[in-house]
Design brief:
about 350 residues; alpha/beta; Four Helix Bundle (Hemerythrin (Met), subunit A); Rossmann fold; 7-stranded mixed sheet; 4-stranded mixed sheet; 16 strands; about 15% strand; globular
């Protein structure tokens, strides 16, 4: 299930705001259109945002008509800056764009046409790497799920949040593919309802048993002994293991700790920000209040009410049982296990 396709120099994305009612592919031919798609959550999920931005940079660079290197690289920096400004929390966005910029600079003495080909190939390679990475995350994480487990997940960290397969849902998919009977509880994930609209749809399409619950029901089912594990994705992980993920993740981690339920984070190493010491340094995006006051076009709140809408929260590392990456499953102390990765993967 690929939500991203790069064909004939144009980017095609599944419009995730229209799922599950309609599966619509939008086409984007300029980097500003791609930036708008990221900002408006046509595409979402940290890995998918990163690859989409890389393709956006390529589309923008390919449209620059000049033989002047200074003009070209100044414009490339402008393109990358516009794409970086779309969403502040997911580090994969910045990682992917910097990788495109580094590749362009690596070939700065080549012709501009060659630089364009090189960064196009780099974006395509990153896309392929993401799929391979997700399958490795799935293989590593599936070992943690026993036959007959019921797993609670939050938001959508599936194929729709990546280039294919998924991170948290990739773990579940891998266990399912190995013949284990896994049942998933997907919470709705207000205010954007990614769990209800996207995760439950993905799992239903794959034939994986799924039960949809409201966000405020999670503690009830944990207390009843109906949840065996929690698995979530991540948008940025600090070097000490503190994790930014969709708003509501922290609450689930606290509930899981209270009920002695393992709480796993599944994410590629590109989601780890080795440059920050803790979650206190992670910027939290605050989105439009309309996402809270409306469901689609239906208003559910009094006119003029004060609204807060942080898109993410920080789960402190002490609430995380393990972080599942493509290289290994990392355990506390995360400062050490993450530190061991910092010099070997880039």
């Amino acid at each position: 299930m690929r939500p991203i396709k790069f064909e004939n120099g144009a980017l095609r994305l599944i419009d995730q705001t229209r799922l599950p009612a309609k599966t619509i592919w939008n086409e984007y031919n300029t980097y500003t259109e791609v930036a708008g798609a990221i900002k408006d959550m046509i595409v979402r999920g940290a890995p998918a945002i990163g690859i989409t931005a890389a393709y956006g940079a390529v589309i923008g660079a390919n449209a620059v008509e000049t033989e002047d290197k200074d003009v070209f690289f100044n414009k490339l920096d402008e393109i990358i800056g516009t794409l970086k400004d779309t969403r502040p929390t997911a580090v994969n966005l910045f990682w992917a764009l910097e990788r495109i910029r580094r590749k362009a600079l690596e070939f700065k003495n080549s012709s501009i046409s060659h630089i364009k080909r090189v960064i196009t190939d780099e974006a395509i390679e990153m896309d392929k790497e993401d799929v391979d990475t997700n399958r490795l995350i799935g293989a590593n994480g599936s070992k943690l799920l026993k036959d007959g487990s019921t797993v609670l997940t939050h938001c959508n960290a599936g194929a729709l949040a990546t280039c294919d397969y998924g991170t948290a849902l990739g773990v579940i998919r891998a266990a399912h593919e190995k013949g284990r009977k896994i049942h998933v509880f997907a919470d709705e994930t207000r205010p954007y309802l990614q769990g209800a609209r996207l995760t439950s749809w993905e799992l239903k399409e794959d034939g994986i048993p799924v039960t949809l619950i409201c966000d405020n029901m999670a503690g009830f089912f944990m207390k009843q002994g109906e949840i065996d594990a929690c698995i979530v994705g991540a948008d940025r992980i600090a070097s000490n293991g503190d994790t930014a993920n969709k708003i509501g993740t922290y609450s689930l981690a606290v509930l899981a700790r209270e009920n002695n339920i393992p709480f796993y984070v599944a994410a590629p190493i590109s989601t780890i920000d080795f440059n920050i010491l803790s979650g206190e340094d992670i910027p939290i995006e605050e989105r439009n209040k309309r996402e809270v006051t409306h469901i689609k076009d239906i208003c559910i709140a009094p006119e003029g009410i004060e609204v807060r809408n942080p898109a993410f929260d920080i789960t402190p590392n002490e609430y995380i049982t393990a972080i599942i990456t493509e290289k290994a499953v990392l355990y506390p102390a995360f400062k050490d296990s993450i530190g061991n990765l910092s010099g070997c993967c880039f």
